[in-house]
Amino acid sequence: MPFVGSFDRRDGADALADKIIRTLSFDLQDFRRGQRPGAPKGFAYLRERVEAAGIFVLLIGNLGSHHSALNVELFRGFALADPVAPFVVINDQDRTPPGPLRFCTSWRISSSVKPV
Predict the structure, then answer these.
(1) What span, in angstroms and rounded, lies between the C-alpha atoms of 29 and 63?
(2) What count of Cα atoms within 13 Å lies in the side-chain half-sphere of residue 88?
(3) Tens digits of per-residue pLDDT, 24-36?
(4) What is the pLDDT of residues 94-108, one digit of tens each?
């Protein structure tokens, strides 16, 4: 995945946002259409774009049983910014809007930035 670690902080937030938009082939109008009744939700659209870019996205809120639900305060999610198999794992118990959307966005930003 050529985008992992490919961004320099000195280029600024606008350049990073443009790179994310290009990498994901993100279309704001398609995203907004997903907010209407009967259309795919915004998160579903974002997840589809992220997965199309080669990033695995998992929504997991328990460890295989409803008895082992993961507390959102302890586990919101994590990401592996691996060049071969990047993963985003999101606690699907996170119902705080925008929940998973916030986590994916912050992961995309952090995984694209090179240490200075």
Answers:
(1) 36
(2) 23
(3) 898 888 888 776 6
(4) 765 555 555 555 555
Give the dihedral sign, CA 32/37/39/43. Answer: positive
The model's pTM is 0.68
What's the sign of the alpha-carbon dihedral 101, 104, 108, 109? positive
User: Is residue 113 within a helix (H) or strand (E), and if so which, with residue range?
Assistant: strand 113-114
Give the separation between CA 66 and CA 63, rounded to whole angstroms. Answer: 8
| Strand 7-8, strand 113-114: pairing | parallel
Instruction: Identify the helix (H) or strand (E) that includes residue 90.
Output: strand 87-90
User: Which of 89, 96, 101 lies closest to 49, judged by CA?
Assistant: 101
Long-range CB contacts (within 8 A, 24+) of 61-65: 61/91, 61/92, 61/93, 62/93
